[in-house]
Specification:
The protein is 38% helix and 20% strand. It is of the alpha/beta class.
């Protein structure tokens, strides 16, 4: 009857998986009264099993991987060290450089053959899914993840379990061993089971004194005391496995094949390095060591000086950790060293591979579609970036880091969020199950320099006459709606219009995610609040607009009307708050009117269509239509006056329009801004108050 291979692995270092593996081998040998084989596959902790068991093998795993003969009872004795309690042992080379050179494929035939020589083989596979660990799992009947009752270990074990399931290992063959557990600990086996998505199979009690005594005497604790808590824990595991006939039932499960292709050689990244190449593996090891050394979540995101100190302290630790690694052939130059340190710091403290795009002032928008695809907008064009994330977990880490800084949350219950970066850039994120290709992030960058009307004239978005007319309109307390599609520049334009408001007026802004940035001193900025975990305490735009009416505003500016708040905004415009502004998603001024009519109905007030039109015609004085053209340029297409009602129709009159005349070189759109010649009705009202408006504004040059 063929034997079984059991692989022991940990989600992170320090969970005691090597102790568990060694003592489990002795427990199986004693309980079954048959010889058991213990193999050390942990390339990172080279030679730890030598210390834990006090055993030495005649030859090491590197020798075994290079052995070309057949594996039988006689030849296997050339390699194993033997203990009087029936445990045979083959160790890892103590030199890490030699351990890294072990060929996993060379061990394949050995793993297949030893099931005919030993009823039970225990493999200590370390805490990373290396090629060697995957080769062990390929021939295993059972995989055991050792976890301890601390949050970091649980989180890393959850990641490991998820990766194994993704690689098509049956969930049934992956069992959880809870090590170092004390009764009364707040992190219970049930809690861990819920977090990881797999019930804990068995619990091993905490036994610090026993483990210290065993290490001091270089012997497995089981050989010193069979009655110690740890020894009793591993014996209970063996008995559960035997009583429930676990191994026989797991042996019938279908295991994944071609693991090397699935895990070790994934798609190449933009840098030409594969996802599991030495560079990526080195980064992964350093990052895990960093997590163990420091609590990265305790950074003070609000204190810039604390951030600088934290980054310098982390950088020093990264360099120290790299100094302990064998980086020969990976870090060949000082530039390589600087690059890997920067990448690790960006992932640990910043937004990972997005940091360089955020630093690039010519990039206006960043769009992430899962870990493999990152796009950015430059000069109005979408371009695919060469950089990628390592995996979807890294994307989720970036999202969680962004939303936690502004007191928001994202999870499976609410898989989307609007947030902002420290510089004011707007962020939208959506994750699984809604985002099928993985975490999706859209960052609209906030310009370092506040744009003025002069910039828009320089960019060709409007003419000087149009800018002067808009300034006069804002100062004359005209109610303005900025209309346009997504990414057309509505927010930029309303920021420019807001800068025209006299500095002695009180401005109150209401937004979902704060983007408006007016230069005046007397500005009250309000932002919506999402509900709590219990689904309570949400504050929406409509509630904020109502609050502004009790705050003595001279101007109310709503970042965007997209629901019932439109009714409150129009009522405010109609009741003494002239000069208010908002934005609306629509493609033309006429569409803007239709959109406002629809949005008012969202309020559920039961107002008749005609009454809604009359309210809009009375409240809105002007519509400024902003569009993004095919060549990526953004232009003010229409400045339109709302003229009132004629019958059941709201009349609109263009004051300025952009007329497209063709397409020039490199696809650039050719055209010119034209004044319609129509002089707005409110001009005469302003002039009666003593302000002279030159008629030349409404003539074509």
């Amino acid at each position: 009857m063929a034997g079984h291979i059991i692989t022991i692995i940990g989600g992170k270092g320090g969970v005691g998986k090597s102790q568990v593996a060694a003592n489990l081998a002795f427990a199986f040998s004693t309980e079954n009264r048959q010889k058991t084989l213990l193999l050390d596959f942990d390339q990172k902790a080279c030679g730890d099993q030598n210390i834990i068991t006090g055993m030495r093998s005649k030859k090491n795993l590197k020798d075994l991987s290079e052995f070309n003969g057949s594996i039988d009872p006689k030849t296997i004795n050339m390699f194993v060290g033997q203990h009087k309690m029936g445990v045979h042992y083959i160790g890892m080379p103590t030199e890490q450089s030699i351990a890294q050179d072990i060929n996993p494929e060379g061990l394949g035939k050995t793993l297949k053959a030893i099931t005919n020589l030993y009823p039970i083989t225990i493999i200590d596979a370390g805490s990373e899914l290396t090629e060697l660990a995957l080769k062990a799992m390929e021939f295993s009947t059972m995989i055991n993840i050792v976890v301890t009752p601390d949050l970091l270990a649980v989180n890393q074990s959850k990641r490991l379990f998820s990766e194994l399931v993704t690689m098509l290992f049956p969930k049934e063959m992956i069992l959880l061993f809870l090590n170092q557990y004390q009764k009364g600990h707040p992190v219970t086996p049930e809690t861990i089971g819920r977090q990881i998505g797999k019930p804990v199979f068995s619990v091993i009690p905490k036994d610090d004194q026993g483990c210290i005594r065993a290490l001091s005497s270089s012997s497995a604790l089981f050989t010193l005391s069979k009655n110690s808590p740890l020894s009793q824990g591993v014996v209970e595991i063996v008995r559960q496995i035997k009583q429930k006939n676990v191994l026989a039932s797991l042996a019938r499960l279908k295991k994944p094949e071609n693991l090397k292709e699935k895990k070790v050689q994934p798609k190449k990244s933009s840098s030409g390095r594969t996802g599991r190449d030495p560079w990526t593996d080195l980064k992964s090891r350093i990052h895990r060591a960093l997590v163990e050394e420091m609590d990265m979540k305790k950074q003070d995101s609000g204190d810039e000086q604390a951030q600088i100190i934290l980054r310098e302290r982390t950088k020093k630790l990264v360099v120290e950790l790299l100094g302990k690694e064998d980086t020969k052939g990976i870090l060949n130059t000082r530039e390589d060293m600087n690059n890997i340190v920067k990448q690790i710091l960006d992932e640990a403290l910043g937004l990972g591979p997005l940091e360089d795009l955020l630093d690039d002032k010519t990039v206006s928008e960043i769009m992430v579609v899962g870990p493999e695809k990152i796009y950015y907008e430059k000069s109005g064009k979408n371009i695919k970036s060469d950089i990628t994330f390592t995996n979807d977990r890294q994307v989720l880490n970036v999202i969680e880091r962004i939303v936690s800084q502004v007191g928001r949350r994202i999870d499976e219950k609410t898989p989307y969020v609007d947030a902002r970066l420290k510089d004011g850039s707007r962020v939208h994120a959506i994750i699984k199950p809604c985002a099928l290709d993985g975490g999706t992030i859209t960052i609209r960058k906030f310009p370092e320099e506040r744009l003025t009307y002069k910039h828009l004239v320089e960019f060709g978005s409007m003419t000087t006459n149009m800018a002067d007319f808009l300034r006069i309109s804002v100062q004359a307390h005209r109610n303005i709606v900025v209309s346009g599609g997504t990414g057309s520049g509505k927010t930029t334009l309303i920021n420019v219009l807001g800068a025209f408001i006299p500095s002695n007026e009180r401005i109150i802004t209401c937004e979902d995610s704060a983007e408006l940035n007016f230069p005046q001193d007397h500005v009250v900025r309000l932002e919506t609040k999402p509900p709590s975990l219990e689904g309570e305490g949400a504050v929406d735009i409509r509630c904020l607009v109502k609050q502004t009416l009790r705050m003595k505003p001279d101007r109310i500016v709503v970042g965007e009307c997209r629901g019932g708040e439109t009714l409150d905004m129009l009522q405010a415009m109609n009741t003494g708050h002239d000069g208010s502004m908002t934005t609306v998603h629509s493609n033309t001024p006429r569409d803007c009117i239709s959109r406002l009519e629809t949005l008012v109905q969202y309020a559920g007030a039961g107002i008749s269509p005609k009454a809604i039109k009359e309210m809009i015609a009375s409240a809105v004085h002007m519509i400024v239509q902003q569009s993004r053209l095919d060549d990526g340029s953004r232009k003010v297409m229409n400045i339109t006056e709302v003229g009132g009602m004629q019958g059941d129709v709201i009349t609109l009159q263009d004051i300025f329009v952009f007329k497209q005349e063709g397409i020039g070189a490199k696809g650039k759109i050719k055209g010119r801004f034209m004044a319609s010649g129509f002089i707005p009705k409110f001009v005469e009202t302003i002039e009666r108050k003593g302000t002279k408006i030159p008629r030349g504004l409404f003539k074509n040059e």
